[in-house]
Amino acid sequence: MSCLTNIPEYKFSIEIGSIFSKKLRWKDKFKEPIILAGYTFQSQFRYSDGELFCDLNIDGSITIESSTGTITLTIPKDKTRELKKFSTGDWSLEYKVADGEFKSLIRGSWDTISEVTV
């Protein structure tokens, strides 16, 4: 990911009944990490019909490693168990600095993978 005016898109596949965790690295135009001190993030995953599946500030977590520009999105397996086979939708990650407004950083679509081992 880089700090661009165009919002990058990325597709995720979520395994039903498993922990979903993705690390994203935010870099500047010189491919150097953005230092994340002072940033706040929010992220939601919605079904294709717009219904909320997961708000990571409530149902999951967003953790950061400030010095490396790393943002980790995590949805626990109890939440991914709610997904049905062939579920699809959209997600986004937004950020703000201090008292500013939230702005889109990255977004995309998601689909499901059936759990193999139960």
List the helices and strands and how they pair.
Layout: E1 12-15, E2 20-25, E3 39-47, E4 52-55, E5 61-65, E6 70-75, H1 77-80, E7 88-97, E8 103-113
Parallel strand pairs: 1-8
Antiparallel strand pairs: 2-6, 3-4, 3-7, 5-6, 7-8
How many beta strands in the DSSP annotation?
8
Distance between the termini: 34 Å
Task: Fill in the CATH topology.
Answer: Immunoglobulin-like
Low-confidence stretches: none
Helix segment count?
1
CATH homology-level superfamily:
Immunoglobulins
Structural class: mainly beta
What do the pLDDT scores average to?
Answer: 92
- Helix and strand element order: EEEEEEHEE
Strand order of the largest sheet: 1-8-7-3-4
Using the CA coordinates, give the radius of gyration.
15 Å
- Please state the overall shape, judged from the principal axes of the Cα atoms: elongated
Task: Identify the CATH architecture.
Answer: Sandwich
What summary fits the major beta sheet? 5 strands, mixed
